[in-house]
Amino acid sequence: MAQIVNEIKNVVHHGSKKRFMRNENDADKETFIMSKKTTLALKDASVDGGTGKTMNWIDPASALANARHEFGEHGGVNMSIEASATFTVMEPETMRKMFTGELGAERDFFIYSRHFNPTVLNLSRSMAAMEGTEAAYCTSSGMSAISSVLLQLCSSGGHVVASHCLYGGTHALLTHFLPRVCNITTSFVDVKDVESVRNAIVEGRTKVLFFESISNPTLDVANVPELCRIAHDRGVMVVVDNTFAPMVLSPARLGADVVVHSISKYISGGADIIAGAICGPTTVINSMMDLHQGALMLLGPTMNPKVAFELSGKIPHLSLRMKDHCYRSLTYATRMKKLGLQVVYPGLEEHPNHNLMKSMANPDYGFGGILCLDMETENRANRLMNRLQNCTQFGLMAVSLGYHETLMSCSSSSTSSELNHKEKKLAGISPGLIRMSIGYTGTLEQRWSQFEKAITKM
Fold it and tell me: Which domain of life is it from (predicted)?
């Protein structure tokens, strides 16, 4: 009878007919983000950037399929949304144990949704599975993910080495905000030149090497294994922004310590959500959630559980969307090149990083869903985009990427406007560079016909 009463208590606490809360004394050793099943599926699926040891490759889609599936409260195939801000306990001693860290989310004990929320936690498991990391945590935006990681890994007086070609918001964070507010400085280098990266690292001061797997907007491809080897040899953590290449590249399996995402882009796919993610070792994620010293816990860039629920329904078809984005991008880039246009795309053999990209990319996912057209001047770029949107309906003039429609923007005057003239020149950003995030609506030939009509009139 006592056992039945305890189970009823647990059902009331957990709110589920299908899964009971584990006992406080249960010696379950799984990490709070990933299930044992996922961890086992991924443990041989990485590349150590420090040693160069290559493990078995695993398809990101397969890793997602192996991740723990969370059922709904009444046995629904979709998980329930845990909208509560705070959580009850059955015994007063339990609350003390949760605040001292003796009990936590890995055993279904939750305190407050700024700390851990079951719905957000489930999305985090999916992100960790996809990127092949031990753990992950989802945040309210991509910039909150980046800033929280840097603030966790760098203290006052710390130093960052970063690529000189970065998203404008990230560049502004490193150039202006962190030096002014936190006394954290950054040396910007050409990450394609590994010697300049090595020389920029300051012994004892440099804490982080930060770069994008595919640079925004120039589409340079970073040599992730080599950059990780250089950084790790000097005791420096590697943080990679993989927003441009989910599924396509897996930086953690290539040696990166932490992978960040703006989930607002490809992973959402609907241009209707702002969200971010941090994927990395359990020790890093745990430190960021520490009650006394954690950047995520104390700065509070919390993801709404309703947003996490929506995103969890979008991840299962991400692999299909990415393959279509990439296939159309390669097709259009090849045809644009034949028209004599100055097109930049890693899938083209003449791209300087084409072979590097082939060596690192996950098989069957292509070379990314973004291509660039260099129209040389902003005026010519604007004229073409105007025709593509308002005359032939090829795409939309808008920032961001990963939408089902093609999105176009002149990077120099929009998403890279935070960089000054000299910084844009160093980054290789032409005044007339159009960044195109290729969509998949309409037929391929229909969309190509719309592009041809617009370019012919130019």
Answer: Eukaryota
